[in-house]
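Note to self: keep these together.
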Amino acid sequence: MRPSAISYLLGMFLLLLGERMFGAADPFRYALSGLGILLTLVALGMVASKRNAATEAQRPAHAQALLYGGIGVGSLVLYGLSLDSVVDAIGFTDDLPQARYITVVSAIWPIVWLCGTVPFLAVERSLSVSPLLVMPSRIREAAGGGLSMALAIAMLFPLNYLASQHNQRWDFGYFKTARPGNSTQALVSGLDAPVRAYLFFPANTDVREEVRTYFDQLDGVNLDIQFVDHALEPELAKELKVRDNGSVVFARGEGDDLQTESIKIGTEFDKARRRLKKLDADVREALLQLARDKRTVYVTVGHGEFYWDSDTDPLRKLSTFKRVLTAMNFRVKELGLTEGLATEVPEDADVVLVAGPTLPMLEEELAALDTFRAKGGALWILGEPDMIDLSAVLGPVGVSIPSGQTLTSDQNIIPIFRAPRDKTNIVTNKYSTHPSVTTLSRNSDELIILALGAAPVQEEGKVSFKRTVAMRTMADVWSDDGNYSLDAGERRQTYNLLVAASGPAPDAEAEEAEFRVIVMGDATWATDAVLDPRRTPANVQLIADSIAWLAEDEALAGIVESEEDVKIEHSKEGQGLWFYGAAFIVPFGLLGLGLGRIRRRNKGGAA
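Structure:
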């Protein structure tokens, strides 16, 4: 192959990399694309130079190579006309002409590129095989064959476009509308004021029937379900702020006291499928907003705790955790020195969360937390092996978390990091019947907790109140000193992972008031790196059950049904293999096989 062909192919390859692998404003895009264009122009310059230096009989062959190479490079101008910046500069006033323009240009430039590139390479190959004795008939045959191949390939483009515009699809995939979970059922049964559910769907639609199936299973004295059509009830739709059909609206109160929560589902079945699969979660969240006053969870800050800030390491980030609590109608607020923690816990606190602090707390802060508990408050302590000493808070409830001890196993683990630390990624389904894990206990075969780098929670001495080990590890776990090996003095056994305590509040004004405390030896189980409703549903359920018990609201516990498919995730390496395989390995592999076959055939003919 001549240097001009090599320069041409390399230039086109770099241009492809620049345009497909980097963003619009990425400097690497400009560098690679610019270098690619330069190399293609250099290739044309080489061909032109060869043409000028050739004999009169050889010039037509080189002229054909220059012509087809010019067509291939010229197609890049058409490609440039399809870029967003060019389309915006044209200034279309209507979406339809713009869409047609983009479609036409995007379809034409690859065809032009093929019709230039393939004949160019065919002529270049013929010239490289016989650079001195140039046979015009052979050059014409090579150019004609290359052009025929290019047009044959180009036929696939309009066929593919027509197929995409007139396709018929048969979906044999799994679909099922979520049914009401026991948490939603309990919420509906416990409604203390009438709530009306308006289902805005036209008659005789598939989506209406799916929604009807779900709501037929909800049974509550204070829930009134009505099917309405937006076109037939314009005044009601206006009052509820509904613009069209395809919505479920929950309403409570009348006139100025009217409160509404809406769920947009849609009327086209294909588009509504995803919302129908998680309908129970949406209904439960909407009902919680109407049926429950907002409660407040304070999260301590300022001591290296796990947090929800955007710059936080995913293994210490609690943004998903916060969203789950918000969906359950809780306010989530910070609690540190500037919020008065050194004095007292705010009066509107229902639950205070302490998640793995690594910097010392003031004695006054620790005392404020213990005072809050003693007055009937609820504490949620998520520990870590490297956590600071919280004995001033944990001691009064009869528990401790030893420092520097990590629960480790080499059997029931989930490899995430592909490193020795994976031995600390333990799983368990050993739950008691305590209300803080009640749903996990009832569904222990399916709901498996994943904890990363947990510390054991130890019971200390006898207590006068109720203290329950609500979750234990599997029996293959040992308490490790940090080397991920089972050393002498370390033994496999079950360890306490979650302890719940409750009892009379000695400093409370009401005699019947009681404190509630949950202590878990891990905080990473609640981070963004782990918390996923589809992959780790048990971890999400633990939030619901724990906060339900701490806030003394049983309706918050229980299962929320979902029929969403578990997302199939590929590693970065796997995605790269598929990309490079589809973009380069397969096409160039087939090209190589074809060239090899032609070469063998030519050798056979020469013999």
